[in-house]
Amino acid sequence: MAKVLVVTSGKGGVGKTTSTAALGVALAKGGKNVVLVDFDVGLRNLDLVMGAERRVVYDLINVVQGDAKLAQALIRDKRIQTLSLLPASQTRDKDALTDEGVARVIAELKEKFDWIICDSPAGIERGATLAMRHADVAIVVTNPEVSSVRDSDRIIGLLDSKTEKAERGEHMDKHLLLTRYDAARAERGEMLKVEDVLEILSIPLLGIIPESEEVLRASNVGAPVTLSDTPSAPARAYLDAARRLNGEALEMTVPSDRKGLFGKLFGRRAA
Amino acid sequence: MNLISFFKRPNTSAPVARERLKLMLAHERAAFGASDVIALLQDEIVAVIAKHFPVEPEAIKIRMDRGDAISTLEVEVEIPTPLCVNISLNAPKPELKAVNSEADAPRLASSGPKPDSLGPALANAAKRERVDLHIEADG
Ligand SMILES: Nc1ncnc2c1ncn2[C@@H]1O[C@H](COP(=O)(O)OP(=O)(O)OP(=O)(O)O)[C@@H](O)[C@H]1O
Ligand SMILES: [Mg+2]
Description:
- The complex is a heterodimer of chains A (271) and B (139).
- Chain A has helices at residues 16-29, 46-49, 60-64, 70-73, 99-112, 126-132, 146-159, 164-167, 183-187, 194-201, 213-221, 233-245, 261-266, and strands at residues 3-8, 34-38, 75-76, 83-86, 115-119, 137-142, 173-181, 205-210.
- Chain A is α/β, with parallel strands linked by helices.
- Chain B has helices spanning 3-8, 14-33, 35-50, 101-104, 115-125, and strands spanning 60-66, 70-80, 85-87, 96-98, 128-138.
- Chain B is rod-shaped, with a radius of gyration of 25 Å.
- Classes of the chains: A alpha/beta (271), B alpha+beta (139).
- Bound molecules: adenosine-5'-triphosphate (ATP) and magnesium ion.
């Protein structure tokens, strides 16, 4: 059965788009039919992160308004057959997304795909609530930092009240994805630890994505980290998170590419 | 600062962050967490006001500010000016002043537009009046 997943955060710039792309690739690599939907109208980025910016013809708003058929707007990934993208519009008219229109598009996507992953805009306004509206599962992307944790708490409140699922009185499945984590700094007490964030937000942990320059490199070239055949630390973290989304129980680790002193001396990669 | 304390100098700001967050969220959850209550309140207030004035649900904003000693619940209602009403709960005696739209609307000569077609036009042209309602309570 199709699952609608929203990737949300409240605070901006914490890694929603990065996570949407990386998890989408990971799930599609596992053989699932996946579509990534960019809800960040006016500030679309997902097409760039996916390396598909030159293939955008129609977008979500065109489909919502009935100016294009869904099939015309979907961009099939060239690297992974089972992955598609429904881009956002670059026009700034975010009011062009109507509740009914979005509901219709999501319903249509559910007939075609196993996973519908919605990349939410930042904030707690209409754009964010529209993106979460039809979700079955939510990923709350959080950085180990006070303002991000606070905003995540707000978003959790919205997920429990403003979604269709919540309104039907059902439990909204929420997962914490801790991104840009620096284990060494957390250990030194310079940064909130995983346990701190978990204790405060008290939703189950889906994964811990380490801070890594690989993420920027990936977005530079339009190839999410999980595409690589030799996965980096953040890629391994995202691959594990995707498996957990599929219901696998895996041990939680913080993958690292960092070379210890020994690794540095001998030029080897520490596990 | 001696050499040892320099090297041992901890930058353990994370525990501070953790405590601040816990405190702040305890407050915020009580306020928004009751966002269900706020949403309920919103619906009920809209229903009550709509009995007397044509208001849109969006014209009503509710905000809860939680302080240490005193918390405030702020209700802001926008009503078209011809139907202006003033409510102040802080006043010794709550006074409610409503302007009867029918009585105040200019009467028109029979050659003019029908009076009942004037209502919406007036309402649209009218600038919107804000009604603030403050309720203070011991926190
Ligand atoms: N694990 C990571 N390590 C290093 N940099 C990261 C990591 N995750 C994200 N970033 C960087 O953080 C920036 C913001 O990421 P991203 O665009 O995914 O966030 P977002 O939540 O979608 O932002 P917005 O709210 O603006 O949509 C990007 O420059 C990205 O490369
Ligand atoms: Mg984004």
